[in-house]
Amino acid sequence: GAGVSQSPSNKVTEKGKDVELRCDPISGHTALYWYRQSLGQGLEFLIYFQGNSAPDKSGLPSDRFSAERTGGSVSTLTIQRTQQEDSAVYLCASSLALNQPQHFGDGTRLSIL
Amino acid sequence: GQNIDQPTEMTATEGAIVQINCTYQTSGFNGLFWYQQHAGEAPTFLSYNVLDGLEEKGRFSSFLSRSKGYSYLLLKELQMKDSASYLCAVRDRGNNRLAFGKGNQVVVIP
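^ Those are the sequences you sent over. The predicted structure of the assembly is below.
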């Protein structure tokens, strides 16, 4: 597709369950980023991938959060043993390179009951 | 680390001009981005400044002063569709991450 694609668009799950969020970046973009946006808050950086380099995981809030990027393209963000404070919109972005503008997907709205 | 500060909300009249300010502190500045975000939608890229001065792009202009740690986004000839949150984001040279401010909500009224 032409833009960054994220799935699912909405996810409701019970506390304690694991969830997996998917991001398809723009074709040819080497950098991929995950952010979290809570109501009324700014975007909180979680992790980024650049080419074959080791990802910058310094924004992940706890060891329940992990992310992978397979084949330099699709990425999945996994949250284990979800908590209510994990409820937020999870946004993925990609860019041609690290110093280029980031293009965002529409996000996954995650609600933990 | 980085510290990004933006005012939270402003109201302006259709056809008017509005200026949205952003101040930042960073240990190694490497560019400033402005994004527009409509409610419930993804942020979309508006402008990028890495050198001091004004970048003009149609009705939107962005200004940067690195010595003052300050940027503004100028919206001219406001239209109703400009009602959105405007996010300032700063990249740090040390880690290439983007740090976002909380955004400034602009409400355009007839």
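The radius of gyration of chain A is 13 Å. DSSP finds no helices and ten strands in chain A.

Shout if you want it in another format.
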